[in-house]
Specification:
- It is a single chain.
- By secondary structure, the chain is of the alpha+beta class.
- The chain contains 33 helices and 15 strands.
- The strands form four sheets. Strands 8-9-15-11-12 form a five-stranded antiparallel sheet, with no helix packed on it. Strands 1-2-4-3 form a four-stranded mixed sheet.
- Helix 2 packs antiparallel against helix 6 and helix 5 packs across helix 6.
- The longest helix has about 40 residues.
Length: about 850
């Protein structure tokens, strides 16, 4: 009786179609072609117009690094590991701002081949990764025995995620690449656990190495977090019944990790070394450390943001119109689609297998951890105790993994509807259909009521809606009596964004409820339901994701780097000097990396992981002037060799000399007469016991960096003031080698206005190494003996060479694993035996079969 009741509600078997008559391989290829078509349509402006995703922001900053690195490499003939253009010089290889050699061989080949599908445009290489991520997701689901429709559903959920689509426009290409390797690495991990053979081990090692070589450490770290959870899930399944199998999985996975780390060691050895000195490490002491908690938890997701999973524009979506609770703001939407949400819920309600529960718990953890400072009960222990977790900021970035988990759950929920199993939780299909039909009707009814009152809806909503906390006071201060009108206009603009998305939600939610109810009532065949659902998901996600795709003519990027009158003037100036652009951190010039594009050195710029001592100097000294009428501490500006100040406002001209006016950009350039040369002698050396004492000296009105150097240790001998007629002469200045000619009558302290960085910089006097003293908190100095000598500063970090050798050796090992593993496959051995004229080794083939 019970059995009859269960089978009565099963959908009728699908009728034969031309698609079902094709071979499995052809059907899979047609599904891949469908993903390709969707990608092509969504990114049509980038593909067919050969346009760029963005014309400024991080895209321009990245191009500045790349161009500057290439120019230095061409001029100097060395691997560029240090750039003098940002923050008075920094190791740009250590923070992967510029990588001299591309050793991600597999990724390069894949990108080159797939880019041909997208007309090989200048920026279509980014489109390649959306397609690649979708295809990887599809085959992962197929390997997990999901139907093609369920696999396509998961692929679309992942590939069209607005949160991921927005990355290209923001210039976050490395983040996008790392994220799209998530399905592939999970697929290769699954194959390793199932087959436990040399081929799978080599492939996973190559996959992990390639993932790491995308160079976005935070997303790579999050992918590893998921892979370790996946390992624990598999081990827990086997531990009791098959402990040896569980152990073998763990050991093989560890070996693959080691191989992947070795492949990426060219990058990661230097990154690890640099991280100890960066803002994300312990500073110059190279002690263990990380970001400050408050800084790290900026961009923590907020529980209130959960509403955007239904109505993505509820809080305005884009930065200028965002009014939600996230601090400080957001320019993206963590929207995963209405259908994946509903289907995922059905999977968790009615197919609570361990597989489904694993992904459900994972999705919940992603959300809870992404709350960051809004859920310290979970985030604080992870921040304090999980290795390297405190190196990363912006907890909401964990949500980049949410569409992956949601896609798997959506595929499981789809299977519940079209192929219910006897082992799942009891589901009254008719009752569920009625519930969904009523829900859809209520949503539609509320919408039509709201539509009737749309004209007065904004006025009837609470006054706090559509105004970000604290923004009213800010606008009041900025606009005075006009502030109420500005606030009203802003509320209207934000309401329009909300209303458009609410309309979309209402229509699509009602349609989705009807669609699912139809298949539950058996009014729709499984094939028809699948086709409608896939179109629905594509439309739903594309409408949101499309808002983050704004193709820009490639010429717009060219305009970004067209030299203006300011840069032309600065390029023409002789000698070694730096500029102080913007002066005020709130001025866009302050973080303008485009000066580096033209080879102009600056004491500011933009980097998310600058040297910690440099940031500390800026925080502790740069704006601690004893002169209340002028906020800049000129002791610091002068000692950093900032000969020119580039600003948008007038400076006191008796103190600074106006030397250039750029009418087009309304930019003024002033000469700083007090700027010290790049290399100079001082008359005396003072020893400070700690950082506080150094800052006190640098901030003191009487301090003169041209006469006194503040050190951290006593010099081995006295220094004598140098005759004013004797000045050090820079013979050669390159990114990794600086040669200076000195001629003094007594031991002297030579100060070089370059950043102190002990992990690679060495100093030599006439070829004999000498000690570099940390000076004035961030600079370098050396003792020079009497007479004429050549002092050389050279940057040669030993980990760079070690990483290069290790990476290439690891690639050879992985290649051997893959080749040997491939040759050991039964069908390959059989073909080899037949071509050799032998019968083949049947016993050996059987022994190599999966699972034996």
């Amino acid at each position: 009786m019970t059995h009859a009741k269960k089978t009565r509600h099963r959908p009728a078997p699908p009728a034969a179609t031309p698609f079902s008559s094709l071979s499995p391989a052809v059907r899979d290829l047609l599904c891949v072609a469908a993903l390709y078509a969707v990608t092509l349509i969504l990114f049509r402006g980038i593909v067919f117009d050969n346009a760029a995703f963005a014309a400024g922001g991080d895209t321009a900053a990245s191009m500045s690094y790349t161009h500057a690195g290439e120019e230095l490499s061409h001029a100097e003939g060395v691997d560029v590991l240090w750039m003098p253009y940002f923050f008075s010089g920094m190791p740009t290889f250590g923070n992967v701002a510029y990588v001299p050699h591309n050793i991600s061989y597999v990724q390069t080949a894949m990108q080159w081949v797939l880019n041909l599908l997208f007309l090989n445009g200048a920026w279509t290489w980014l489109v390649v990764y959306y397609f690649f991520g979708g295809v990887s997701m599809f085959f992962l689901m197929r390997v997990w025995k999901f139907s093609r429709a369920a696999a396509l559903l998961a692929a679309l959920t992942f590939m069209l995620s607005p949160y991921m689509v927005g990355l290209a426009g923001e210039g976050h290409g490395s983040k996008l690449m790392a994220l799209t390797y998530l399905p592939l690495t999970v697929l290769l991990t699954h194959l390793l656990f199932e087959r436990r053979d040399l081929l799978s081990l080599g492939l996973l090692g190559a996959g992990i190495g390639t993932l790491m070589l995308t160079n976005h450490m935070q997303i790579v770290y999050y992918v590893f977090m998921f892979l370790l959870l996946f390992l624990l899930y598999h081990v827990s399944l086997d531990l009791k019944a098959q402990p040896r199998r569980a152990l073998s999985k763990a050991v093989l996975f560890l070996i693959a990790l080691v191989l992947g780390f070795c492949i990426s060691s060219y990058i990661y050895l230097s990154v690890y070394e640099y991280s100890r000195f960066s803002m994300r490490g312990g500073g110059i002491t190279a002690a263990g450390g990380g970001l400050a908690y408050d800084y790290a938890t900026n961009w923590s997701w907020h529980p209130g943001e959960l509403v955007t999973l239904l109505v993505p524009g509820f809080f305005g979506m884009k930065a200028e119109y965002y009014w939600g609770p996230m601090v400080p703001w957001t320019n993206s939407s963590v929207y995963i689609g209405l259908a994946p949400l509903l289907l995922g819920a059905l999977a968790l309600l009615f197919r609570r297998t361990r597989f489904v529960l694993f992904f459900g718990v994972t999705a919940l953890l992603l959300i809870l951890v992404s709350f960051g400072s809004n859920f310290t009960l979970l985030y604080q222990p992870l921040f304090d105790y999980l290795p390297f977790f405190n190196k990363f900021r912006s907890p909401e970035q964990l949500l980049h993994l949410l569409p992956f988990a949601a896609g798997v759950l959506a595929g499981s929920g789809f299977s519940v509807l079209v192929s219910p199993g006897d082992g799942e939780a009891a589901m009254d299909r008719k009752k569920l259909a009625r519930t969904l039909a009523i829900t859809g009707g209520v949503i539609a009814g509320v919408f039509f009521v709201a539509l009737l009152f749309q004209g007065n809806l904004l006025d009837s909503l609470p006054g706090w809606m559509f105004v970000k906390e604290g923004q009213s006071a800010q606008l009041q201060q900025q606009y005075g009596a006009r502030a109420p009108r500005v606030i009203a206009q802003l509320r209207e603009a934000r309401f329009e964004i909300f209303w458009k998305d609410y309309v979309k939600f209402s229509l699509l939610a009602a349609a989705l409820c009807g669609l699912v109810a139809g298949v539950l009532w058996q009014k729709l065949r499984a094939g028809t339901f699948a086709a409608c659902l896939l179109v629905f998901v594509t439309l739903d996600l594309s409408l949101v994701a499309g808002q983050y795709i704004e193709p820009h003519p490639r010429e717009a990027l060219t305009e970004e780097f067209r030299p203006d009158a300011t840069k032309t003037f600065l390029k023409e100036q002789p000698g070694n000097f730096r500029i102080f652009a913007g002066v005020d951190p709130g001025d866009p010039l302050y973080m303008d990396n485009s000066f580096a594009y033209f080879g102009i050195q600056s004491i500011t710029g933009y980097s998310p992981a600058k040297l910690k001592i440099y940031q500390t100097l800026l925080d502790s000294c740069m704006y601690r002037s004893a002169d209340r009428s002028f906020p800049l501490n000129m002791n610091v500006v002068d000692m950093l060799n900032a000969e020119y100040l580039v600003v948008h406002f007038r400076l006191p001209e008796p103190r600074f000399q106006l030397v250039n006016v750029d009418q087009a950009t309304r930019t003024l350039t002033y000469r700083n007469p007090g700027a010290l040369p790049r290399a100079f002698y001082v008359s005396e050396a003072a020893v400070a016991p700690n950082d506080g004492a150094v800052f006190h000296a640098l901030n003191a009105p009487a301090f003169n960096p041209a006469q006194t150097a503040v050190l951290y240790k006593q010099l081995p001998g006295p220094v004598v003031p140098v005759d004013s007629g004797r000045v050090p002469r820079i013979v050669s200045y390159q990114s990794r080698e600086i040669r200076i000619q000195t001629d003094v009558g007594a031991p002297a302290l030579l100060v070089l206005s370059e950043i102190y960085y002990p992990a690679g910089w060495h100093a030599y006097v006439d070829g004999k190494e000498t000690e570099i003293f940390r000076t004035d908190y961030v600079l370098r100095s050396v003792l020079v003996p009497p007479g004429s000598h050549e002092v050389t500063f050279a940057f040669d970090p030993p980990l760079y060479r070690l990483g290069w050798i290790t990476s290439n050796v690891a690639w050879v090992i992985v290649l051997l694993f893959v080749l040997i593993g491939f040759l050991r496959l039964p069908f390959v051995r059989g073909r080899i035996a037949r071509s050799a004229g032998g019968p083949g080794d049947t016993a050996a083939q059987a022994a190599d079969a999966p699972g034996v």
